[in-house]
Design brief:
This protein starts with 8 loop residues before the first strand and ends with a strand. The longest helix has 24 residues. It has a six-stranded mixed sheet, sandwiched between helices. A four-stranded antiparallel sheet has the order 4-5-3-6, sandwiched between helices. Strands 8-7-9-10 form a four-stranded parallel sheet, sandwiched between helices. A hairpin with a 2-residue loop joins strand 12 and strand 13. About 10% of the residues have low confidence. With about 575 residues, the chain is α+β, with helices and mostly antiparallel strands. The radius of gyration is 25 Å and the shape is globular. Helices cover about 50% and strands about 20% of the residues.
Length: about 575
């Protein structure tokens, strides 16, 4: 279906642009991943850009849902402005920028978030104006390019920053409406993208254009479609080799001793503290990008000492949604000439886990983990990347969340097309995953191992204790924001005011059906005494039942409970 073009940049245009960008990045994601060689050849730039825009889309849709606007085709030349009762332009671009900021992934996703924030700062500053024309869009693109460049500690030409600057330069020379400005920005960016191999030797050696720049051109193509109703055509430069093999044959970096970890976190901090943080992180590693403002920042850096990078954030303010990724062999700053290709292991377990503590526990047991932040479920592309990191011929996949079953199934199917034998065990909680991992034996036949793990997970009832975020109808009645909820096997069973009392009630109900082992996983925000209280309760009332306690970290729920 043809896209109904927008005549000017208003809230509906923002919504349209975000949606078109997400769909375009979804189509181009694998292509962009394949040419990702700088700054790290980890093959995830397309996925990171997609996830960043996905977060922006969710934020914009939430603003529109709050206004309950029924969007439909409109004739901008005939419909009076005062007939529109939706969010303002400032509301829409603010939501877009905030969503991208909190959901930014990777180096390129973080820079894209700052580009969108730079645009939003100009567009939202236009007072009560419900829309902007071509000149306003030109200013927004110029400020976006400048603010993104300022956010990068050591800007490098031949990257997404170069492409953004070229887009702004081309837009500066455009006259006319938003469609003309967007088209000029796209053409300028596309020309700059084609020239990136001449500016960055690593791209020239690999025979590819810059992956982040490719993603930005894709987003600008969606902007053209927003105002014209038609996509301007293919994005990739004609001579770009879009092959995974390019990354393998032409290593990405001469420095084989480069940083081993990517660290990303959101940070609540004052401007002065962030200025000091930039200096400290710049001394610790490279690829430093700090974006945001108004008290909320997204920090991205590559370091050898991930703990020091997080500690620097703690000194500056309150870091949260911390993501630490260890670059695998051949992924980061490695020449690939010193080491032979790593042999695949026979079997591996890949698990999605909700907190840093559980991630460490699973990793100690030999699993490859993917950390799922509260409210940020992983996409199928991230699961596929985790399967690739496991580097095994056979993989057992533990989604540990009922809502991830279809996502995990899609990832498993993709991994199978790459020659990996994958078995998906539909675990609905991390405690079921712990039970499955406890009986995992790599020396067994694959089918037998999967059956044993599936049986152990299925025999484990699961529960969680959490806090209600809003008033809602539940299977146990109406809850209010701030109530403590006890969920058993996914359904609300208990509503109360005290964490310890709700947890004890949940545990009693679960053990009323029998059990031999209770697993308790405490979140960071759980009361310190609750684990000891529950252990004592089990000792006194259930003599034949053992209890094990783990620290889950920032896992969302106050407490996870498993009964086997």
């Amino acid at each position: 279906m043809a896209q109904v073009p927008q005549r000017f940049f208003d809230a509906l245009a923002v919504r349209t642009w975000c949606g078109l960008s997400l769909r375009a990045l979804g189509r181009a994601r694998e292509e962009i991943d394949a040419i990702n060689v700088y700054p790290v050849a980890d093959g995830d730039t397309g996925t990171n850009l997609y996830l960043t825009v996905e977060s922006a889309v969710a934020a914009v849709e939430a603003v529109f849902a709050a206004h309950e606007v029924d969007e439909g085709p409109r004739d901008a030349g005939k419909a009076p402005l005062d007939a529109y009762d939706g969010p303002s332009l400032a509301d829409a671009v603010g939501a877009m920028a905030h969503g991208a900021l909190i959901g930014a992934r990777g180096n390129s996703g973080t820079i894209l978030a700052q580009l969108l924030r730079g645009m939003a700062q100009v567009l939202a500053a236009r007072g009560d104006s419900a829309r902007t024309e071509g000149p306003g869009l030109r200013l927004a693109l110029r400020h976006a390019a400048a603010s993104a460049r300022q956010a990068v500690a050591h800007p490098v030409e031949g990257t997404v920053l170069t492409v953004a600057s070229a887009a702004a330069d081309a837009a500066d020379g455009a006259e006319g409406d938003c469609a003309e400005v967007a088209r000029a920005a796209y053409e300028g960016a596309r020309a700059a993208l084609a020239a990136t191999p001449d500016q960055l030797p690593v791209l020239e050696r690999a025979g590819v254009v810059d992956a982040g720049g490719h993603g930005l051109v894709t987003v600008l193509a969606a902007l053209v479609e927003t105002f014209t109703g038609r996509s301007p055509g293919p994005v990739a430069a004609p001579h770009a080799r879009v092959e995974h093999a390019a990354r393998e044959e032409h290593p990405a970096d001469e420095d084989e001793n480069g940083p081993a970890f990517e660290v990303i976190y959101l940070l609540e901090a004052e401007d002065a503290a962030v200025a000091r943080l930039r200096q400290r992180l710049d001394a610790l590693g490279d690829s430093l990008v700090v974006v945001g403002g108004d008290g909320l920042w997204n920090v991205h850096v590559h370091v050898d000492d991930a703990g020091a990078a997080v500690e620097a954030g703690v000194e500056a303010g309150r870091p949260y949604r911390i993501r630490i990724t260890h670059f695998g062999h051949g992924d980061a700053h490695t020449t690939g000439t010193e080491r032979p290709p790593r042999e695949r292991t026979q079997r591996a377990v890949v698990a999605v886990v909700p907190g840093e503590g559980l991630a460490a526990l699973y990793a100690e047991a030999g699993a490859t983990t993917l950390l799922a932040r509260p409210g940020e479920p992983p996409a199928s592309g991230e699961l596929v990347q985790a399967v690739r990191r496991a580097h095994a011929r056979e993989v057992v996949l533990l989604p540990n969340d009922a809502e991830l079953r279809h996502t995990a199934a899609a990832a498993a199917e993709q991994a199978r097309t790459e020659g990996v034998r994958v078995a998906l065990i539909p675990t609905r909680s991390a405690v079921q995953g712990i039970a499955a991992l406890a009986v995992h034996e790599p020396e067994r036949r694959f089918d037998e191992d999967v059956v044993a793990m599936t049986s152990a997970a299925g025999a484990t009832r699961h529960a969680e204790v959490t806090v209600a975020e809003r008033q809602s109808w539940t299977t146990a009645g109406i809850c209010q924001a701030g109530d403590v909820l006890g969920l058993i096997d996914g359904d609300v069973a208990v509503i109360g005011a005290d964490v310890s009392q709700v947890a004890a009630t949940v545990l009693d109900r679960m053990l009323s059906a029998g059990g031999e082992l209770v697993t308790l996983v405490l979140g960071d925000e759980a009361p310190p005494a609750v684990a000891a209280q529950l252990e004592a309760r089990v000792r006194e009332a259930y003599l034949a039942v053992d209890t094990v306690v783990y620290r889950g970290g920032r896992q969302g729920a106050l407490l996870l409970v498993g009964v086997e």
